[in-house]
What we know:
Number of strands of chain A: 10
Largest sheet of chain B: 9 strands, mixed
Structural class of chain B: alpha/beta
Radius of gyration of chain A: 16 Å
Largest sheet of chain A: 8 strands, antiparallel, barrel
Oligomer: heterodimer
Helix content of chain B: 25-40%
Distance between the termini of chain A: 30 Å
Number of strands of chain B: 10
Strand content of chain B: 15-25%
Radius of gyration of chain B: 18 Å
Strand content of chain A: over 45%
Number of helices of chain A: 1
Order of helices and strands of chain B: HEEEEHEHEHEEHEEH
Number of helices of chain B: 6
Largest interface: A-B, 39 and 32 residues
Helix content of chain A: 10-25%
Strand order of the largest sheet of chain A: 1-2-3-4-5-7-8-9
Shape of chain A: elongated
Structural class of chain A: mainly beta
Order of helices and strands of chain A: HEEEEEEEEEE
Amino acid sequence: MLYKIILSLAISICCMTAYSNGQELELHYSFYTLSGKSIDQGISFSTGGYSIDSRLRIGAEFRSIDWGNQLSLDIAYENSFPGISKDQIYGLSCLHLGWALFRPSALFSPGVSYTIHYRKAIGLRSSAEFMAGVRYNVCPGYRKYGNYQQFEIPLALGFYWNLQ
Amino acid sequence: MQNILWLAFSVIGLAACSYLPEQEIHTSEKYSIEETEDYIRMRPVDRAVTSSIMFIPGGLVDPHAYISTFHPLVETQQREVFILKVRGNLAILNPKSVERVRAVSDEHSWVIGGHSLGGVLACQSLKKRNENWAALFLLGSYSTIDLSEISQPVLTLRGSHDGLTTQGDWDKYESNLPEKYDLDTRSWPVSSTHNMTLYQTIEGGNHAQWGNYGAQINDGAASISRIDQQLEFNSTFITFLQLNAL
């Protein structure tokens, strides 16, 4: 666990450093439902991402899932709901361009997700967020070895710090 | 700044990469393979199981790489094998998973073992819940904690060309295991091997050939094939189990 946290922080700090107007740091814990199997727990860490415009974000993520460790580049589109401020509740459709980390070569491992986020401001520079949604992840190159796809129900609690 | 980002990703990528099995999974009509998020279970078909074997993979090695290791055992014997699956393929960081899999069955005796770092965790698990395990076996590994007082039989093997678990490591940690019985210079004991550790060196074997995942960084070059190394292991392991009525 400590190992994963250190890796995650390393990624996050580097991302925030690289983008000097960086947005946020998020740690979240997810419960994964493997396809046709019992509920399992997994963990992933992601950077909150860099906003390209008001609705489009990119981010990076490190995850330890059924087939091992995975790095992914995430591209997300934010949508609001009629009558609700998007500063409080919004949806996020995300394409995860992932690579399962194997030797001798990484395996492409894409995924898609849709999550709904509820954000609560804590002071002027930070906020807490609860997220729930659905996610599908597949690693076609792993098919000949074992379980190569998983459906997940991610639940996350995130904390954000505005660095600007 | 982008250079720092890519450097960080490269370091993480290398550090977290797991070895993938070289070939497709070996299957047989004589045993079934069941896979869950916690284990890969190899179970004989049409034969009653007399003991269960828990095997902990080496660090950052995909668990499927050990199916071929136990293929001869499960195909011919009345034993089932549970190969542990853990997040990130680092069992040493997920020690609770061992007990979770151990809870699957209480019908018969359990033997625990592991390869490399997995062996280290096997030793720790035995120390923690001694009553749960009837025997211990180590492949290219050693105990970093004191198990010298345990009564369970212990078997430890290494390849003579192992570049990661050296003869020096074996010698250094020998005192952590029960009394040494060297199978390289002596014949097999005639009765059970409780309170002793059987040592055997596989001539020409190396560290990576305990599994099926190709060459490993810093390992020595083997002068025997992977299949020969694994057949020799199976032969020794089966004798060890039979001698101890497991």
